[in-house]
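Troubleshooting log. The previous run stalled partway through. Resubmitting the same two chains, unchanged.
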Amino acid sequence: MNRQAQTAVLFLTGVALLRAGFTDLYLRYVKAGLRPLLLAAGVVLIATAVATVWYELRRPRVSADVSPEPPPDTGKAQGTAVAQGTERGRDTGTARDDGDTGDDGATGEGGPPHSHAHREPRVSWLLVLPLAALILVAPPALGSYTAMRSGTALQPSWGYPDLPSRDPVRLGVADYGGRAAYDHGRSLGHRRITMTGFIALDHGGRPYLVRMVLSCCAADAQPVKIGLTGRIPPVLQPDSWVEVTGGYTARRAEDPVNGGVIPYLEVDRMRPVPAPRDPYESWGG
Amino acid sequence: MAITKAAPPRGDRSERDGPRQEKPKGQGRQSSSSLVLVMVLLLVVVAQGPIRRALAAPAMESWMTVFVAVVVQALPFLVLGVLLSAAIAVFVPASFFARALPKRPVLAVPAAGVAGAVLPGCECASVPVAGALVRRGVTPAAALAFLLSAPAINPIVLTATAVAFPREPRMVLARFVASLVVACAMGWLWHRLGRTDWLRPPARPSAEGLGKGAAFWASVRHDVMHAGGFLVVGAMVAATLKAVVPADWLRAAADDPVVSVLVLAVLAVLLSICSEADAFVAASLSQFSLTARLAFLVVGPMIDLKLFAMQTATFGRGFALRFAPATFALAIVVAALTGTVLL
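Second attempt completed without errors. Output:
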């Protein structure tokens, strides 16, 4: 890949990161806390592209001052090449980029002996893939397919603070799961609970309310599954987002994937809702 | 639309990039590279309907999401590491490191290993920084100790480990000790056995004749393109594993104490999870013993697919092929011993 193409890829990647950061798109892939870093990275990438262009444009003027022979009016390019002898090797190497495979281009055939010919590897082309995926396809947040393939990630927590006094009280799926599974519902009592998550069905068609929990990015996302019982609509569409209201029940099941605990919720009411802004929960949040 | 905006200056510059004597050949190649890029992007834009339909299967969607997530998550840390590395290469004089580190490599190794604690980031940042240290004349043994220890023992990662294992505070201590021991041992091992001709960093653009600003940005551009490409390779492999290998295979492996350590070590290599997040994944692998999970936490930040690809890019293939298996074996042994003693 030559310098022009690199500049274009850097610029587009920066723009894609900024776009993802300024819309809610980034929340499909990483946790909300990474947003400032994403935006900063986007700015740096764009700055790198701009700096590359800037130094390319400035070079002829600088060299014209140093050059002993007047730069030909046909193109500043030749003046540059003549005046900047030390740069020649590098440019030679860059020019050879596309043709070369094989191992390290430590020796530049044809280049001046003192120069180190350099070759940007073809692997740089792969950067086009995430760029295309992010700009054009924008894959959705992880859903029931991933959730049912991995074990529930419920973990015992430090402690379970008292519930706020509202009724029904709104809890995160992981929060309810922890209280129900490891505190045996003591902190839940007979309170009415409201949670939002998406529907996933296991092989036997049993419905679960699932929320993926992530600590950094979607690659480490893990499901927290709550079994649903009580007044459930007969037909449930996997991956549809719902809000359920109900109460604690002592019923529980074992996740066939990793043997983890799946607590249940006795559902009173279930209604479809649009997907939330941030489809994931994060630990402790 | 961004493509059309960026196009005119690019076409203009291709004139200047070709050196005189190779102009016809050079120029042909130069423009063909940009041309291919424009063609590829146009093709994707035109064909996006069919492409989207082809990617609509749940497994494919999940693959793409994980792939994009790994890249998006790692890019900021890569950029941070690349900026640091460029700053070290351009603005810090080589004499600084000669003064800052002990003269004898045997002592410089643990010093550099402990210094790894101050780089707050994951492994994507440490590879370019270690590369810059080597080029700046730091003894490779010390730079490698830094490379291995930085992603594992910095405060952010240790805090994440403490949060992920609320009932096992010894896990944090075990991770710190085991990671530091492996990093120093690898540094000393390199000092004893390593040969400089294995360490062949691919040639870089020479900074001679460039101003400091130009050299800085050239270094940033080069490193992002270089390491970024390899990052994409690692992300593709990790996404494939996450989307294809069923998690219940792991359950069968968890029963045997020796097999479980090996399986989680291999899993750490294959999954290539960021070191700031791996503790949470380890915590959820609750069917495995604590020692096995410690192996996961020690191996992961030191060697995984993404890191191997990036090390190849920074230090050369001959180096990575020797260094990575040695690190892997040593990390497993040390993690198993530490786990037996501490956990």
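Takeaways: Residues 1-28 of chain B have pLDDT under 50 and may be disordered. The radius of gyration of chain B is 22 Å.
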